[in-house]
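Pair request: fold both.
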Amino acid sequence: MIPQKISTTAGPSTPLRVAQDDSFVEATAGAPHFVRGMGLFSATAIVMGSMIGSGIFIVSADMSRTVGSPALLIAAWLVTAAMTITGALSYGELAAMMPKAGGQYIYLREALGPLWGFLYGWTLFLVIQTGTIAAVGVAFGKFLGVFFPSVSANHWLWHIAHVPALPIGPMVLGNMDIGLNTANLAAIMVIALLTLLNTFGVKLGAGVQNVFTSAKVLALLAVVLVGLIARNAAALAANFGPGWENFWAGSGWHTLHPVQVGVGGPTALVGMVTVVAVVQVGSLFSSDAWNNVTFTAGEIENPRRNLPLSLVIGTGSVLLLYVLCNLAYLSVLPMAGSAGATTLAGRGIQFAAQDRVATAVMESAFGGIGAKLMAGAILVSTFGCVNGMLLAGARAHYAMSRDGLFFKSVGKLSARSGVPVNSLWVQCAWTCLLCLSGSYGQLLDYVIFAVLVFYILTIAGLFVLRRTRPDAARPYRAIGYPVLPAIYIALAAWICVVLLRYKPQYTWPGLILVLIGVPVYLVWKRLDTAMTEPGTES
């Protein structure tokens, strides 16, 4: 194979710039290269393990408070399932067409140009990937506190400062504590440990992922089984009876639902379609990160086959479990509840303690031991989620570096393990800083909208590449093209419009974070050009 240089300046209409094997740049010089050490099972484990964190155990409480109807709660998860699986079917074509390390970053770069790839990679590193890892890691620490009470977000080892709330229009910035407490210390230790394990090679990282993904899937299945076995007659009557009337109550086309506009803003009355779009903030984000497997394409065996399969199998399996989990919640706890109630049934799904719906279900079935069982399941889930996202994210940052759009050292592979060790540690360092800053929760809220926009752009890129690269090899073609991808874009665009209108605190900050990347891109490009001009050192 003749070595080629990856271009970062060509436009969307140019030929594909990356060779069939993304490792060619280093392999042809006898230098380290990626090892294709993950099969279909490992690839699917990354999809499922990255999706399943702590969200499914919590977000249904807030969603139910907004929709106020069992039918609409299930409908919201079904919309998420339809969109996610449709997105995975579309990404499958792009993944089979360009099985390179970097995944979605590569797809955006090839279809829309290097600026769009950079904006995605910039936001991914700044908060999408690292902020999610930080949030999941701190969730691990908080649930560890169920077994070790000294591990708590309120147990400060070094409290640096409290940043007061700063209202800006519909947004509220600040209102966070900066420093080291025992909960985020646990998170930092887990993140550092898993980063270290992943530096020893993709097979070890994938092995850890396989074990913990299998365990967390079994935990979700256990919640579903508990819902079937420990069904509560009062909950079934409240949520489904008589004759399913209560299930459909509040879900009529003409029923209006109150939604608060922004933070502290006025309350607006919206219809069924709009309220289901509003609560997608919870269900879509709980189902996110399914695209992470595309970042690892350079290390997957037979990626043109296994990448599309892992996307479809992984997303389909997880979303089926999510819908079944919510049906289990409705079988054990009444949906409506009171914040001041002292019993599980009285608080219901809407006001489960700290929104921990799954924990309330397990407590209902097993008493006090149920809370510990659920805490253990969430520890397994969050541990596996952190590992999968650490493994995958480092490959995207590596791909950016190879294009001259990130720190040069991040684009190097270890001679011993064949993994981007520097990328792993840079990612680890920034994630740990987010843990200390206390800002990860707000940052995640801010990028939900931006994540959805990048999904729209990537699937739009499928249409662009069908037109500009009609002769490119496509071992798999998106099922339902062009109808299903177009439906995804329409649904996602509608959700974006609704969020812009009713949840501006989730939209404008995310857009600002993305747009800041434009001048950063221009500066980075100028520096990269200056360093690679003839007569200069690179």
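--- second member of the pair ---
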Amino acid sequence: MVIGVFALIILRLFYIQVIDGSYKDRADDNVLRYEVQYPPRGEVYDRNGEFLVQSKDVYDLMVVPRDVTPFDTAMLCGIVGVPIEKFRAELQKAERYSRRRASVVLKQLPKEVKVKLEERSFPGFYTVYRTIRSYPRKIAGNLLGYVSEVDERAIARDSYYRSGDYIGKSGIELAYENVLRGDKGVKVNLVDVHGIVKGSYQNGIYDTLAVPGTAITCSIDARLQALGEELLAGKVGSIVAIEPATGEILVMASSPTYDPDELVGRESGNNYMKLLRNPRSPLFNRAVMSRYPPGSTFKIVNGLIGLQEGVLRPQDTYPCHRGYTIGRGVKCHEHWSPLNLIDAVQTSCNAYFCYVLRNILDNPKYGSVKRGFDVWADYVRSFGYGRKLDSDFLDELNGYVPSSEFYDDRYNGRWNSLTVISLSIGQGELGCTPLQMANLAATVANRGHYFIPHVVKRIHDRDSLDARFYEPHFTKVESKYFDPIVEGMYRAVHKPGGTASIARVDGLDICGKTGTAQNPHGADHSTFMCFAPRNNPKIAVSVYVENGRFGATVAAPIASLIVEQYLTDTITRPQLVDYVKNMQIAYPYYDRKKTK
């Protein structure tokens, strides 16, 4: 019995000391402190190498409640610059979480505060290096996005994250989070019974270094972006500019916007709530998240479909008697009549494209307006409407192209081409994002194909981007049919009677199309799309200004200034800049929301 008892004791000791590591772990917890080493996020440059986003050093104040001994609370609070009551509340929160595990007490302290803390002894407290974002140009808040503390859902979704970590919440920061975040490291320190660090454990052989996030070169031109935001100041709308040959986004401005530095630092939470309560929604990226009627810019799509379907020839003429007079009719502004296709694009004639749409839908070879409509809708979707473009913006909206089933449900199967006549001028149920409109301008510039718009030009540790950004997407309209449309867009800017003469810039062959989109909440929206030069285009632009009235009133001047700045690196019409900046636009819809 004695031998058996001693055998059991020996076996138990062997198990505890050799096999079971839990007691060693508990002992290690008393003498070892594992400090997470946070990597700096990758920087973001514009296409010319200028910084858009940088990382700035800060420090989080951590506490292990078990190791805290009596200390001068007033002195510590004076160093870190917080009220004693707030500090005590944070300390109590840490104690409720765990007395043995480290918790964050205060975040994002500057380096000079860290140095002052290290000059004095506060057992149980220590600092951890972090980085926060800084924005040298104070532009492109909606485009770049912001970084915020991770929530429980993200922690459950990805084992990389722990409470207190930061994650991209919108824009590029969200879309390229896995690229920008880097890899965390760990530093193992020896601590004494008072929680004071005595040095690195085993000379650091168990430490791992943090790997910084990868830098990104953005396709945005910072100077052009700044000009766009300056021209949109005080207005509600957006500007999108694309390089047609690559799909790279040169400008993505949404207004109103915000200073991205407002969502950095210890006041970021308060600033976020202020932005969230703003009735004009500055956090909302209208360039990819708003769905607007395309207005008269959509006429060129109907013209192209008519040419491809053989129900329209460039020389075909139709009359305009201040509008289309069949059925309920569609009004039009005054211009010469009759017109051919080029004239109709130049003058933006509503009546002409009413005839064109009805010819497409009532085409005898399809046997019914429903079948003709399905064919028309397939053409429209081939231009990138009614679906997401698959850009690198995760919040991109898909827009809307109605189906024949939609009208069957609405009109109980009793509808015809006159019922949907408003689609001829980009109204009715059609909806698109400004990004889709800019993509249409790029598609016409390329005579029938486009590349998926994207905002990142290069990821610095990779040879190329995702393959989808290099593949051309072709419309269902052959390139030979684009010539009369391009001619009409050219004349709209450069010839008498053109609706976009205000966009003319001497020496630049700008081709453009104005649009006036109906708005149930106030004055019509002003929209304009263009590309330049006419041959071998370098830039395609869409501008959408809510309540801006006619396309030539505000959208066309803004687009022409963007084109001029990009192609010539200068602005020769300062009076036009002043005209746009000083324009006063009423927004009753948003003002009512503010009152409520």
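Observation on the second member. The mean pLDDT is 91.
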